[in-house]
């Protein structure tokens, strides 16, 4: 996706920046108007990477950042230049080129951001988190719906599309290694943007696709893919976060604090109004609201919280070795990269401590009915299926958590297991097989049969 510029014309911005940047502009591509009283802050985001919405798509839609800037009362008029990208790599390139002040991206791109910033003399800092999953469920490996591939071992000799250097690539590498395969030798890795990879999977030029949100869920909802591997099987946290150019943060801490306060407001809005938030994001991105809700809903795969939790920092440290092995970075000083002083100040010490200690909600099934502004929650998969069976014409989407990993998935795309009277959902064949191995008499059943049993 090409960047969208929504404020000053490029020529005017550049001319103004050249004249007045030392006096009044923010860092990066920020620029000041001729009278020195207007400042432009440039924010790079990924509209369709929907676990960054509280620092991007949703935040932009709600206008909270602009309102926070207006409330600074410092006599400056602020403008926000929102720039939309498909992945984190071009945001990093623009930050290190001095053209973006604040950016949001996934964990592996964040580490590359840290490495490139230091290497090019434009150091950046991780200042908050957007969406995360403590088990790694934000990344999924999918195959075409008619594929005979049933396990990671079946990928040997196959063509697998991913975006090299992304969190989804990291999931692919680790998953293959755990399955006893060499990611460099045993598969043909296709380095493709998510949309290109999705097209390749549909056309048959890729046998599998390892991608981050929202692509696996989107393809599953569209009936163009089925899950082969749930990233949560790794049981390693994955996250998205906000990075800021260090010079910008130091020169304009009030502006960065305003951004982080606005991010917290957007997070609270998403938590309080998950259906409305999903529809806002869907409207802005063109994604189906049902797919957005799969990841960002009340029981969604992602938990949103700007606090930088210690377990997420430790996960970043473990990610460094994967990037080093791929020769995408050298050593990364994660402790130096992480800087929570700004978000701690924005939230206040007490609230920040409370958010650090908060645990993600326990996953539960949900049904979204036509016209409803709230979803219905269910205590068991069987109860959810019974409701779906009785209200088929009214159901917009039904979601169930994997029995072992907790990853939410579309009920009609899940692998269902009947174990006595219990009906149990799984995202991928591997987790279902693991359950079957320890439960004699249990068996996989089609979704239609699971609905019939429940009703």
From TrEMBL:
Pfam families named among the record's database cross-references: NMT1
Signal peptide: 1-27
Residue intervals of the SsuA/THI5-like domain: 89-277
Keyword Thylakoid: no
Annotated InterPro entries: SsuA/THI5
Protein name: ABC transporter substrate-binding protein
SUPFAM superfamilies the UniProt entry points to: NosL/MerB-like, Periplasmic binding protein-like II
Keywords assigned by UniProt, alphabetized: Signal
């Amino acid at each position: 996706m090409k960047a969208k510029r929504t404020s000053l014309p490029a020529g005017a911005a550049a001319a103004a920046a050249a004249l007045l940047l030392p006096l009044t502009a923010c860092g990066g591509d920020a620029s000041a108007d001729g009278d020195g009283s207007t400042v432009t802050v440039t924010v790079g985001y990924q509209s369709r990477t929907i676990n960054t919405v509280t620092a991007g798509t949703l935040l932009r839609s709600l206008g909270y950042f602009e309102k926070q800037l207006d409330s600074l009362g410092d006599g400056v008029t602020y403008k926000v230049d929102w720039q939309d990208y498909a992945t984190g790599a071009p945001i990093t390139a623009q930050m290190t080129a001095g053209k973006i002040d604040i950016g949001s991206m996934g964990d592996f791109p964040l580490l590359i951001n840290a490495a490139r910033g230091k290497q090019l003399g434009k150091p950046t800092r991780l200042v908050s988190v957007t969406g995360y999953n403590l088990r790694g469920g934000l990344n999924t490996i999918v195959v075409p719906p008619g594929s005979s591939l049933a396990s990671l071992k079946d990928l040997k000799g196959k063509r697998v599309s991913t975006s090299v250097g992304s969190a989804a690539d990291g999931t692919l590498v680790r998953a293959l290694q755990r399955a006893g395969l060499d990611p460099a030798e045993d598969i043909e890795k296709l380095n493709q943007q998510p949309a290109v990879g999705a097209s390749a999977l549909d056309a048959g030029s890729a046998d599998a696709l390892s991608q981050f949100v929202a692509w696996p869920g989107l393809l599953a909802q569209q009936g163009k893919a089925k899950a082969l591997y749930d990233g949560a099987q790794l049981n390693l946290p994955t996250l998205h976060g906000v990075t800021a150019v260090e010079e910008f943060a130091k020169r304009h801490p009030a502006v960065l604090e305003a951004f982080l306060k606005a991010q917290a407001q957007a997070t609270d809005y998403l938590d309080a109004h998950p259906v409305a938030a999903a529809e806002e994001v869907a409207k802005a991105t063109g994604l189906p609201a049902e797919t957005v809700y799969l990841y960002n809903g009340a029981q969604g795969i992602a938990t949103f919280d700007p606090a930088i939790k210690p377990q997420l920092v430790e996960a970043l440290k473990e990610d460094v070795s994967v990037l080093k092995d791929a020769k995408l970075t050298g050593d990364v000083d994660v402790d130096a990269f992480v800087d929570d002083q700004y978000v701690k100040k924005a939230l206040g010490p007490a609230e920040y401590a409370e958010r650090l200690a908060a645990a993600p909600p326990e996953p539960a099934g949900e049904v979204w009915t036509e016209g409803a502004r709230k979803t219905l929650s269910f205590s068991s998969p069987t109860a959810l299926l019974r409701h779906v069976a009785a209200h088929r014409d009214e159901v917009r989407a039904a979601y169930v958590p994997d029995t072992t990993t907790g990853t939410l998935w579309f009920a009609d795309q899940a692998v269902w297991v009947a174990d006595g009277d219990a009906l149990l959902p799984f995202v991928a064949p591997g987790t279902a097989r693991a359950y079957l191995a320890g439960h004699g008499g249990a068996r996989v059943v089609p979704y239609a049969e699971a609905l019939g049993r429940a009703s």
